[in-house]
Design goal:
Length: 314
């Protein structure tokens, strides 16, 4: 590896682990916030459970990504077939859970927001149970399509082999036949179109209802000033931003994946794809925390308690 490539890989490594560090910190804060709110006995919102679940999934996924990608930049030299299969499959599994949890959050919020006259209103009473079953079913289906990793992933024994698809310096994929590749590509396209399409529809539905509500509120108030956003409206805007961010990052990830199939062996494309593939998991909790007004109230409450304790001790 020449000096220029070394500089490029060092830049990619710094960028990736900076992204991972931000993501682990943000998801940990979001998970601790929801856990602390639950322990304190605050009445949870209906979307708190899906958001807390997403934070936990993203936290584990980023930890696995950091361990796997470190082997891409600097070979550990100690990975065998079982280690490669286990870590790569677990990483794909938690990526599947991330997509399914995001879809569940979008559909769940759309059901909560729908008016009583809508056909979706009949799902409101049983939506937590039904969506939990939907999440479990979609996670199993989504993961089963990636089960070939348990066979295809092997420890790299010959770095010069042209038949292997290298993932890291220690792990590679065995090449698939053209028929198997077409089958898995079709299944992958179907699952992505289905879930992303479902998220897109629910996002458009929420945006339409929110615009109608805003217009109706302005007419009732007969004022040009925009009405003050309620906590429910802020929650909807947060989820709309999450869905939009997810759709953008998924589109970029698909483009990078397709580009890698055309320009095989291009390590720079693989590095960029790694950054894009984990962008949603790393930065989505920042969107939630930024719009979470309860976090500000919690911090003020904790600060007041600390000041009170210090005054009593002195």
């Amino acid at each position: 590896m020449n000096k220029d490539n070394t500089l490029y890989y060092s830049a990619y490594r710094i960028a990736f682990f900076s992204e991972i560090g931000i993501g682990i910190s943000a998801n940990s804060c979001l998970l601790l916030f929801h856990t602390f709110m639950f322990i304190r006995g605050h009445r949870p919102r209906l979307t708190d459970l899906p958001i807390g679940l997403m934070a936990l999934i993203h936290l584990v996924m980023l930890l696995l990504a950091a361990y796997i990608t470190e082997d891409f930049f600097m070979s550990s030299g100690g990975w065998d077939d079982i280690t490669c299969k286990l870590f790569i499959f677990l990483h794909r599994f938690f990526r599947s859970l991330s997509v399914c949890a995001t879809c569940m959050l979008s559909v769940f919020q759309a059901i909560i927001l729908c008016p009583q006259s809508s056909h979706l209103a009949k799902f409101k009473l049983n939506s937590p149970h039904q969506l939990s079953c939907f999440f479990i079913f979609m996670s199993i289906f989504y993961t089963s399509i990636s089960s070939h990793i348990l066979i295809a992933a092997i420890a790299t024994r010959n770095l010069t082999s042209v038949n292997l698809i290298h993932i890291t310096k220690s792990c590679s994929f065995l090449p698939m036949s053209s028929s198997m590749q077409r089958t898995f590509s079709t299944l992958l396209a179907f699952r992505n179109v289905f879930l992303i399409g479902l998220m897109g529809l629910s996002t458009c539905y929420m945006a339409t209802l929110l615009c109608r509500h805003k217009t109706r509120s302005q007419r009732l108030q007969n004022s040009k000033l925009p009405p003050k956003a309620t906590p429910e409206q802020r929650a909807i805007w947060t989820i709309l931003m999450l869905m939009s961010f997810f759709l953008i990052m998924s589109t970029f990830d698909s483009i990078m994946t397709y580009s890698r199939t055309i320009f095989q062996g291009n390590q720079s494309l693989y590095c960029v794809q790694i950054l894009v593939a984990h962008g949603y998991a790393a930065f989505s909790p920042l969107l939630v925390l930024n719009n979470e007004k309860r976090l500000t109230s919690l911090m003020i409450s904790m600060y007041d308690r600390i000041v009170t304790l210090e005054s009593l001790c002195s």
